[in-house]
Amino acid sequence: MRGLLGLFPLLFASLAWALTYEEALSLTKNGMLHLTEENYHSYIKNNDFNLVVLLTATDPRIKCKLCVEFEPIYKQVAAKYAESITGEPIPADETSRLILAHSEYTEARTYFTDLGLTSVPKVYHYAPGLGPKMTQFSNDFMFMTEDNVEAFQRWLTEVTPGLAISDLKFMPKMSIGSILTPVFSIFAIGAIAYYKSNFFLKLFGFKKLWQTLSLILILIFVSGQMYNQIRGAASNKNGDYFQVGHNTQFAIESQVIGSIYLFLTISLLTLLHAKSGKVGMLVVIFACGLSIGLFSGLINAYSIKSPGYPFRVF
Question: Which residue of 25, 83, 188, 193 is surrounded by the most CB atoms within 10 Å?
């Protein structure tokens, strides 16, 4: 009985420490509640409001491209929302109250660890009272490959009853430099093209240049370099060059495949330009052997990616 009675002060303390909507509003800066190592335990206790948290890592050492791209969007949406509710009465329905929060990995490592995060950025929505149950978020925002602005604004209206998308619309910030730079660039390119028109006509008609550029682009795309740029693939792991499965890969895997395709191209071009005679015959034999060996390596690489693939050359 004493044990049960001892729990009441703890329960009362936890309720007393819960953050109210008015308190959260007073703690926001530029429309956002900033979560750090020191305050996140207190600030995530959303007693009577929806809490949306951006968990990001914009430190250049972490190399999170999407984090750097999305954070300004999130900040502008938060600032616009703060502007739209300024002077408005507090909604009676707690599910219509919204606080946007932001947390940077370098400033709240323990918070990220408690959430069990293995990748960033993440945007979590917690219904009123669910903030302390960190891993039991109500919804999470799915990042799009194209327009994250409209998708994020639409998602916020879906998780917050009564919130209109007009409350979140903002005009992108434009500097004088961003306007003048394209104008001057167009004039400069036009002037150069006009005065050097003969040179550019010869350049555009240079067949070998376009052949080379086409081959380079083909090698980049077929070797998976675009995947590495988009997903930020790791170089390699434990000395492995290939990762099983077609939905993931190491960066070095693209370099190996690209090299195989490059030498295949060279060997085939050598065959096309081989001359008659003994030397030409030796060149043909060497190029054929090289092509077969390279194709064998390519098939072996494919069999590593697909362990059930039954075919081999050697």
Answer: 25
